[in-house]
Fold:
Amino acid sequence: MTILVFGETGQVARELARLDNTKCVGRDAADLVQPDACARLIAAEKPAAVINAAAYTAVDKAETEEDLATVINGEAPGAMARACADLGIPFVHISTDYVFAGDGQQPWTPDDPTGPLGAYGRSKLVGEQAVRDAGGVHAILRTSWVVSAHGNNFVKTMLRLGAERDALTIVADQIGGPTGAREIAAACHAIAGQLAADPGKSGTYHFSGDPDCSWADFARAIFETAGLTCTVTDIPSSDYPTPAARPLNSRLDCSETERRFGISRPDWKATLTHILKDIGASK
Ligand SMILES: NC(=O)C1=CN([C@@H]2O[C@H](COP(=O)(O)OP(=O)(O)OC[C@H]3O[C@@H](n4cnc5c(N)ncnc54)[C@H](OP(=O)(O)O)[C@@H]3O)[C@@H](O)[C@H]2O)C=CC1
Ligand SMILES: Cc1cn([C@H]2C[C@H](O)[C@@H](COP(=O)(O)OP(=O)(O)O[C@H]3O[C@@H](C)C(=O)[C@@H](O)[C@H]3O)O2)c(=O)[nH]c1=O
Ligand SMILES: [Mg+2]
Structure:
């Protein structure tokens, strides 16, 4: 029994590669710019399940490349989901908090109305709907603020900047749950197995690290855990202009994921500890 994983170099894909029975395919074997080729690969491989961990994740760049982002994040997952539905196998797709507009203070439930603020979020929303429309056994797992020892992420950025500077200004009005790529990979793997046993669990779910915090709080915790001296000053998002607007409220209500799959929110302080150990940046 093989779980076919789209993605090889990405944060979550690298963690999936470490798990049992996974076969990760990179851009050379499956370019998401060609959705039909992704579908043909699934049909040829006939895996027991498919997890899509590949995506266009450059939030700001997507503003000027929305067509490309929409093929990769929208059309390709749709083609994968249809190929899985044809084979009668589960499809696990990863989505994002950036499908929400980010107003209010309440954690978003899976059924809450979406309203992406930028091109990346819109392209991911297209993917979600295409996966549902395929009509097969599926889970869409929305996560947020992904961090790991590999690739581009906020922890790596802070370690680099924190070593160079005595002080940083970090946005404090965006609130969400930092989530370890390792924990997301484990959740996707477990969900694929549970969907195979019980297709009735199909649906959209949330999974983010606990507790919710601001990027500024998270930066302070990174410096504290790494033993770096760098003062973090809270700023509003309006003082950190970016091409794409980010949601202010990225809190995800993960209770259905816990209830249906028995998977609870991972403690991000523990995630931070294992990431810094892997990087060799613990104090
Ligand atoms: N990063 C984050 O903070 C968040 C991510 N997510 C979602 O989680 C999932 C995993 O994200 P993450 O691991 O961080 O992603 P990364 O940005 O670390 O990696 C993206 C992966 O997608 C691959 N990819 C991009 N374009 C293509 C393409 N045209 N064909 C084939 N492969 C491609 C990349 O391959 P290559 O190296 O060849 O470019 C890489 O393996 C995604 O669905 C993302 O939207 C959700 C919330 C937060
Ligand atoms: C480097 C830096 C960033 N920031 C802010 C900008 C931003 O609001 C926040 C995080 O920066 P990032 O560039 O990591 O954010 P971003 O790339 O938008 O992260 C997002 O990626 C996509 C793929 C997702 O799906 C989301 O869940 C989310 O993780 O920190 C500062 O305030 N000061 C700084 O010095
Ligand atoms: Mg493996």
User: Anything to note?
Assistant: The chain has a mean pLDDT of 97. The longest helix spans residues 66-87. The radius of gyration is 18 Å. The first strand starts at residue 3 and ends at 6.
